[in-house]
Specification:
By secondary structure, the protein is α/β, with parallel strands linked by helices. The chain is 40% helix and 21% strand. One of its GO terms (cellular component) is cytosol.
């Protein structure tokens, strides 16, 4: 259920309109609450009560479409967004002047114009902070068109190159400090104007189509045309343009429209030669480029060709929304949206499109007239784990499916084959709902369509990984009100495991020290069938970690995985052993549900029941030597660069010197190569034959990876 808010902002440009508005979204969430078991025989009672409740969350919507639909846009605003409290509508860009009278007449509101560059920079800062795979570089002659970059924690300073009708180059130093340092009159308007004069084609998109088909070297004179090759004395590549349109003066034949259009695209970005000098002068590493049309990927290619590796041009997936986002942030300053973290909702967002007109043409055409981005406000601010060795180079994911065609084909097929089962599980989780089957089918169709898009355009939502496929599935489940399909399964498994807890502890306590360490490690992998003889486990350097009777660690941070046997009979006995050695423990669980992973709220109930049975856990809770926290995530995987701020503060305060990450999603699909400042232990059972083979093992092999940072 979507309740549209009266807070909204409009950005209108030369050819495109971008609508930005804030709404509150009402959706279902699964809640757990402990039963009052006092004075009752609880042997056959459920461990806790599960309820599905309505929750209100904030969502930002950004819609982009051609100006020919401006009247339709205003009708939408009038019917859905304007209420009696609305007096002013925010607007920025050239259209704020062009359409001012139309907007005020149609909506009966005053247009409040915002500075376009201020809005653009605010929007840029916002997406750089909140969308991990926002930045990419164009890769010429590569199977993968786009190479996504890791967002650096400190985004300043950078150069912003805004290519609209002309070109503006701005140095951005802080959130609010920036200055114009250069520009050019040769920009998009130049390309459009010359194209209209030479080809009689008035439509911008048609000119780009012509340019993409043409070959500029038939018209432009290159260095090698002048010198017969590279000009080594000056270090000039033979493929650099020596003279735009230089060959047209000596040609003895007419050039096609395509051949005329291509060199104009190159001419437009001659300004790019300014960039390396400015970067060097101002000692800035990053340059971000923004274009006034979503189809100007052709020009990205020209930038890449022109600079021949001198500078890496960086672009953003959502460059078309930056002004609209900035206008929203300006208008909502009293609510301080930047105090929150936001996340892209894959279920409601259009993806980045291919530069090739031959790739998925139907969706490409649709994107040109109607494009969307949705961002949800997260409950808690997210930050880096303080123990990351180098946050600027940290990459959560083990396999990049965007780059690896074989891996991509395998995993997309896996998710397709599993889809029917997931839909059935979702419907079965709500047996009392009369429309559960219909909603499950809508989920199935939505996620199937997403998978087909990713087959054609694996870069649509940034770097494609197993994590992003899982997260997209969770977003689609939530869209159709399936907040926790495994809630009943987890409830049952937690109850069964708790009944075995005391006997497991008694058995462990009866063992000698060394034997108990091996048993504890096996218990950490409880609930999985595994081959204990796998190389990663039999190697003495890994097992030695648990055999050292040296001084205890000060504090251990444990990222838990599954409910039931895993956390109760695997993690908690290990936690108990650490506590007995004098090590404090921070136990981190998901903030929200994902598959059968234990959530923070479930862990509170489970821990309460364990404490009632075990004095070691009870004492640790009372003395705050065992602390339960939430990760800020609702994913089966783990991104250590986006964790709950409260968790990060606790890690610093307790001087954490050991991190333990368990499970396939958190320790193999993500963080397998993560480098930390302290000792770490990553362990999981490989339950996928393809992945086992890729890592050099067999299915059900065990990963037990103990790492000590280099000093």
């Amino acid at each position: 259920i979507l309740n549209l808010s009266f807070i909204f902002f409009l950005l209108t440009g030369g050819s495109l309109t971008k609508l930005a508005y804030y709404s509150t979204v009402q959706h279902k969430v699964a809640r757990v609450r402990s039963f009052d078991h006092s004075g009752k025989d609880i042997e056959n009672e459920p461990l806790y009560e599960i309820s599905v409740q309505e929750e209100i969350t904030a969502r930002l919507h950004f819609i982009k479409f051609e100006n020919t639909y401006i009247e339709t846009c205003l009708d939408f605003i009038k019917d859905h967004l304007v209420n009696t409290e609305t007096k002013v509508i925010k607007a920025t860009g050239g259209g704020a002047y062009k359409f001012k009278d139309l907007i005020e007449k149609k909506l009966g509101l005053k247009v409040d114009k915002e500075d376009v560059m201020t809005c653009l920079i605010k929007g840029c800062n916002f997406v750089l902070r909140n969308i991990p795979h926002e930045v990419f570089a164009y890769q010429k002659d590569s199977d993968t068109e786009f190479r996504f970059q890791t967002n650096h924690p400190n985004i300043f300073p950078y150069l912003l190159v805004n290519i609209g009708s002309g070109v503006s180059i701005v140095k951005v130093e802080t959130e609010d400090k920036f200055e114009w340092i250069g520009g050019s009159s040769i920009g998009g308007g130049t390309f459009w104007g010359l194209g209209a004069l030479l080809t009689k084609t008035k439509k911008f998109d048609e000119l780009l189509q012509l340019a993409s088909k043409g070959q500029h070297t038939n018209v432009d004179m290159l260095v090698k045309d002048v010198y017969g090759g590279a000009y080594q004395t000056l270090g000039l590549s033979g493929n650099l343009i020596a003279s735009s349109f230089g060959k047209s003066t000596t040609a003895d034949k007419d050039f096609s429209l395509e051949k005329q259009s291509s060199p104009k695209a190159h001419l437009m970005v001659v300004t790019g030669r300014l960039i390396p000098a400015l970067l060097q002068f101002y000692r800035i590493d990053d340059t971000f480029f923004f274009f006034f049309s979503p189809h100007l990927r052709t020009i990205q290619l020209q930038c890449f060709i022109l600079w021949q590796g001198e500078v890496q041009a960086l672009f953003l997936r959502h460059e078309g929304y930056l002004g609209a986002i900035g206008a929203f942030l300006k208008g909502a300053e009293q609510d301080n949206p930047n105090q929150y973290s936001w996340g892209e909702n894959y279920a409601g967002s259009s993806g980045l499109m291919s530069t090739s007109p031959d790739v998925y043409p139907m969706q490409r055409t649709r994107s040109g007239t109607f494009d969307m981005l949705e961002m949800d406000r997260l409950e808690r601010p997210l930050v880096n784990l303080p123990l990351l060795k180098d946050p600027s180079t940290y990459i959560p994911d083990t396999v990049d499916l965007t780059d690896d065609a074989m891996a991509r084909k395998y995993w997309l097929t896996c998710f397709e084959e599993a889809l029917d089962g997931v839909a059935k599980r979702a419907a079965a989780s709500q047996p009392d709902s009369i429309d559960a089957l219909q909603r499950a089918e809508k989920f199935r169709q939505k996620y199937w369509n997403k998978l087909q898009t990713l087959r054609q355009q694996p870069f649509a939502y940034g770097t494609l990984t197993v994590r992003s496929l899982l997260d997209t599935r969770e977003h689609c489940l939530n869209e159709f009100n399936f907040p926790d399909p495994y809630s009943k399964v987890k409830q049952k498994e937690n109850g069964i495991a708790l009944k075995c807890f005391q006997s497991v502890i008694e058995s462990l306590d009866s063992l000698g020290w060394e034997e108990r360490q091996f048993a504890l490690v096996k218990g950490l992998l409880a609930g999985n069938v595994f081959d204990w003889g796998a190389k990663a486990v039999s190697d003495p350097e890994y097992v030695g970690f648990l055999l050292q009777e040296g001084p205890p660690h000060k504090c251990a941070l444990i990222f838990a995985d599954n409910s039931g046997i895993d956390i109760i009979l695997g993690v908690f006995p290990f936690v108990r052993e650490l506590l007995s050695r004098g090590t404090e423990v921070i136990l981190a669980c998901n903030s929200g549900p994902a598959l059968n992973d234990v959530t923070y709220s479930e862990s509170l109930i489970v821990t309460e029941r364990i404490a009632a049975m075990d004095p070691v856990i009870q004492s640790a809770l009372r003395e705050e030597k065992l602390l339960l926290v939430q990760t800020g995530s609702s994913s089966p995987c783990l991104d250590l660069s986006r964790l709950d701020k409260g968790l990060a503060v606790l890690v610093r305060e307790r001087k954490t010197d050991l991190v333990i990450i368990e499970g396939m999603g958190r320790a193999i699909h993500t963080n397998y190569y993560a480098a930390l400042k302290c000792e770490s232990l990553k362990l999981a059972v490989i339950k996928n034959s393809w992945l086992a083979d890729r890592l050099g093992g067999k299915i059900f092999s065990v990963i037990f990876k103990y790492e000590v940072p280099c000093k």
